């Protein structure tokens, strides 16, 4: 059996890395649709600029995992062009003409394959990294992600991405219920609402880490 790895100085307690390769970096939805003007996030009335601030931090994590040849997964929220995987209740969000599937400056909003649905260029996946398109907020909903992680022997997730209280938190809760140990990287996740980000960080690590752990990028980097 391979020996467990070192401990990240996380909150509410140290996070011990399992055997080499068992911890994957899971980057949630770092897409133009959420980070750039003209995408889904902006169509819902959000100022997208705060999300752009974490791009360098997510890049540092990608660089770390790539340098050590460790598993990386990128999720991408989007719908099929015929919207058959988009519930009517979701499609009704936002102003008419600026809803999922409507044309925007970066192509059809939140539709797979459109320019706006792609990853921001700085964080584009590299060959060998797993890309998981997802129709919902949680990365485990209708994606087969659980089986893909199991096939790779992954039991821990180091999580980054957007938005903290929507797709990131939903995914973290789904993962926690499925037995994965999850660490959310505080300065590599962001929300359109600073108070929602702060509350999410508090609630995941409350009660002895009821949903998981949190740590800063630097604290993750220093144990590798
Ligand atoms: C949202 C996401 N906020 N990736 N998606 O609709 O958090």
Could you describe the 3D structure shown?
It is a single chain. It is built from nine helices and ten strands. The protein is an alpha/beta fold. It has a domain at 21-32 and 47-84 and 121-222: Isochorismatase-like (Rossmann fold, 3-Layer(aba) Sandwich). The model has no long low-confidence stretch (mean pLDDT 97). The strands form three sheets. Strands 7-4-3-8-9-10 form a six-stranded parallel β-sheet, sandwiched between helices. A two-stranded antiparallel sheet has the order 1-2. The longest helix is centred in the C-terminal third of the chain and has 16 residues, at 194-209. Bound molecules: dicarbonimidic diamide (C5J). Dicarbonimidic diamide binds next to helix 7. It holds the Pfam family Isochorismatase. Residues 23-212 form the Isochorismatase-like domain.
């Amino acid at each position: 059996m391979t020996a467990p790895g070192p401990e990240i100085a996380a909150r509410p307690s140290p996070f011990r890395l399992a055997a080499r390769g068992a911890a994957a970096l899971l980057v949630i939805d770092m897409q133009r649709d959420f980070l750039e003007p003209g995408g889904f996030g902006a169509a819902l009335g959000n100022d997208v600029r705060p999300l752009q601030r974490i791009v360098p931090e997510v890049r540092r994590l990608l660089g770390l995992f790539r340098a050590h040849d460790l598993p990386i997964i990128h999720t991408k929220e989007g719908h099929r062009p015929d919207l058959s995987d988009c519930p009517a209740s979701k499609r009704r969000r936002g102003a008419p003409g600026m809803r999922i599937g409507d044309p925007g400056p970066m192509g059809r909003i939140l539709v797979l394959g459109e320019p706006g649905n792609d990853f921001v260029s700085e964080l584009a996946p590299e060959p060998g990294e797993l890309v998981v398109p997802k129709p919902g907020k949680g990365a485990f909903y209708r994606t087969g992600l659980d089986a893909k992680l199991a096939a790779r022997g992954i039991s821990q997730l180091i999580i980054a991405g957007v938005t903290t209280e929507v797709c990131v938190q939903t995914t973290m809760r789904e993962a926690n219920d499925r037995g994965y140990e999850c660490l959310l990287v505080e300065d590599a996740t962001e929300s359109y609402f600073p108070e929602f980000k702060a509350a999410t960080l508090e609630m995941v690590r409350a009660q002895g880490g009821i949903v998981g752990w949190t740590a800063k990028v630097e604290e993750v980097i220093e144990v590798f």
